[in-house]
Write a structure and sequence with these properties.
Length: about 150
């Protein structure tokens, strides 16, 4: 009988001791965000348009930066003569960056408010470029480079 009481007491102590330890604290390292997009980019895009006399291709020069809140890039479509700013609708770590375009120069040649998508590729020095606005679509490739 004494052994049973001793065994019950030992088990009770173990159960109480097991339940009284605080749960271990687990710290998770912050996730590093890949920034595929920051830098200077140049390239060409094929244009399809329902507008008369629209170009069939356009050259693109862009600078993208995460350091300017509200605007994340500047663009120029050289042969068309349009330039302006991009506002980001997605983050720099996304596989596809969605941009809203505001034309500053050349509004008579480029409709304001285009949506641009930049897509990361397997090559960190190359992006896919996709443009949609007012019956105009353009698709091309941008290469990372100097200004």
């Amino acid at each position: 009988m004494a052994q049973r009481l001793l065994l019950i007491g030992a088990l009770s102590s173990l159960m109480f001791a097991c339940g009284s330890d605080p749960a271990p604290v687990v710290t998770v390292a912050p996730q590093q965000v890949n920034d595929y997009y920051s830098g200077h980019w140049r390239g060409q895009a094929r244009v399809t348009s329902s507008l008369p006399d629209a170009p069939t291709q356009m050259d693109i020069s862009a600078t993208i930066t995460a350091n300017d809140p509200g605007h994340c890039g500047a663009f120029e479509y050289g042969a068309i003569g349009c330039s302006g700013m991009w506002s980001c609708s997605s983050n720099f770590g996304a596989d596809t960056m969605v941009l809203q375009e505001t034309v500053r120069i050349g509004m008579e040649r480029c409709p304001n408010g285009a949506q641009v998508e930049l897509r990361a590729t397997q090559n960190p020095n190359q992006l896919e470029f996709h443009y949609r606005n007012a019956g105009i679509q353009a698709t091309g490739t941008l290469e990372r480079g100097d200004i």
